[in-house]
Amino acid sequence: MAETPKTASLTIDGKTFELPVLTPTLGPDVIDIRKLYAQANVFTYDPGFTSTAACDSAITYIDGDAGILLHRGYPIDQLAEKSHFLEVCFLLLYGELPTADQIEDFEYRVTNHTMIHEQMHNFFRGFRRDAHPMATMVGVVGAMSAFYHDSTDIADPWQREVASIRLVAKMPTIAAMAYKYSIGQPFVYPRNDLDYASNFLRMCFSVPAEEYVVNPILSRAMDRIFTLHADHEQNASTSTVRLASSSGANPFACIAAGIACLWGPAHGGANQACLEMLREIGSVDRIPEFIDRAKDKNDPFRLMGFGHRVYKNFDPRAKVMKQSADEVLELLGIENNPTLQVAKELEKRALEDPYFVEKKLYPNVDFYSGIILDAMGFPTSMFTPIFALARTVGWISQWKEQISDPQLKIGRPRQLYQGVTQRDYIDVENR
Ligand code: CMC
């Protein structure tokens, strides 16, 4: 017997409206309010989208209470352990794990798009050397639509595919160039005989004056950092990409919008802010002072790398990142790193503190990532560009999903107007 579709009733001024309830494959039911305004002449109010599903998606699922993150159904810890970044890119973009032939073909396509248009080098040179690499990336990625006209027609599936591959392939080159430019060193061209992570490390750390040999331990750790950041459902930057794309904007413009949003310290900028905070704390004996500040309502300070809009449990990415930090620092022979010791002790004390326990504040992905990136030799200003590089595939997958939806509508939220009501214009001499 067919199940009766679920509905929710809403009564306003004695009049009742029946709203359809949609059931996802995982997660809570969703009340469909699309016709609410037309039927009841009311809007819903949800600043920060704390209870609003803005789209259908089949890419990533998060259960924040249980601390679960799945990409196309596969748990992130399994992907971090058994897979590698380009395989996860394929999974996110096309929905299934690739066969051996498919991954070979995908890696070939990505590898053969790693160079950027030579004239873009001049574009980089227009920036001040002391620009933050994220500022440079927002500009350069936005400018890609001026260099790659042949992949900006969003109505053409082939052009969409080429734009996707170009973005995944060129982002490490662009991030590395932003870094090289900021430190006054020559740009390093990509090498197609290296894997994705090794190529990025080489573009960041090699100089023409000497041979650079990629450390496989660091390359594996880099790849894992990329994997852990690849996608994260409808977060602020992804929603920004979707909103930009809903108007029909080209993919390079949409990804530039995502990068701009990611830069904020409440989002991707938290990894830089977190390492700076851990360094400022400096030693274990100063931890109580900073915990007290984080709890003080009159102090704007927050524990960076702690808390999450969705996770009210351990961020599963933080668990893998912590393990990775231990491994990398041990293999590099710097396991007594004072910043790692401060981080571990801070985590322990915060998790025993009723303030953090009651508010369900746990370490997030940014808590340990900066320690690894620092040990690899990256300055803090490169942490968020690395996040942007890795998240590009997530943004692109979500963009592709949205663009292929025949029901696509321009994103246009409503508002609760709190301004003055209509009034007549007053001539300047009468004001
Ligand atoms: N330190 C101290 N108190 C905190 C923290 C923190 N890191 N995070 C949240 N709180 C408190 C907050 O003051 C509030 O208290 P009250 O209810 O008494 O007013 C309560 O916890 C809920 O916080 P909220 O700001 O309403 O929660 P939110 O879901 O809007 O914000 C967040 C989530 C990630 C912006 C926030 O936890 C935060 O600012 N964390 C630090 C920045 C950070 O690490 N961001 C990286 C997020 S993960 C990477 C990514 O996806 O970008």
Give a structural overview.
The mean pLDDT is 95. The protein has a three-stranded antiparallel sheet with strand order 1-2-3. It is globular and about 75 Å long. Helix 12 packs across helix 17. It contains 18 helices and six strands. The protein has 431 residues and is mainly alpha-helical.
Question: Key terms for this structure?
Answer:
mainly alpha, 18 helices, 3-stranded antiparallel sheet, 431 residues, 50% helix
Helix percentage range: 40-55%
Q: What profile does the largest beta sheet have?
A: 3 strands, antiparallel
Which structural class is indicated by helix and strand composition?
Answer: mainly alpha
Total of helices? 18
Rg on CA atoms, Å: 24 Å
How far is the first residue's CA from the last residue's CA?
A: 72 Å
Principal-axes geometry comes out as globular
- Low-confidence spans: none
Order of helices and strands: EEEHEEEHHHHHHHHHHHHHHHHH
Strand content: 5-15%
Q: Give the strand order, joined by hyphens, for the main sheet.
A: 1-2-3
Number of strands: 6
Bound molecules: carboxymethyl coenzyme *A
- What does the average pLDDT come to? 95
Summarize the structure.
This protein has 431 residues and is mainly α.
Topology overview:
Layout: E1 7-12, E2 15-22, E3 30-31, H1 36-40, E4 60-63, E5 68-71, E6 74-75, H2 76-82, H3 85-94, H4 100-111, H5 120-125, H6 133-147, H7 157-182, H8 196-205, H9 216-229, H10 236-246, H11 251-262, H12 270-281, H13 287-295, H14 316-331, H15 338-352, H16 354-358, H17 366-376, H18 383-403
Antiparallel strand pairs: 1-2, 2-3, 4-5, 5-6
Helix pairs in contact: 3-9, 3-18, 6-7, 6-11, 7-8, 7-18, 8-9, 9-14, 9-17, 9-18, 10-11, 10-18, 11-18, 12-15, 12-17, 14-17
The structure holds carboxymethyl coenzyme *A.
The site of carboxymethyl coenzyme *A has 20 residues, from loops.
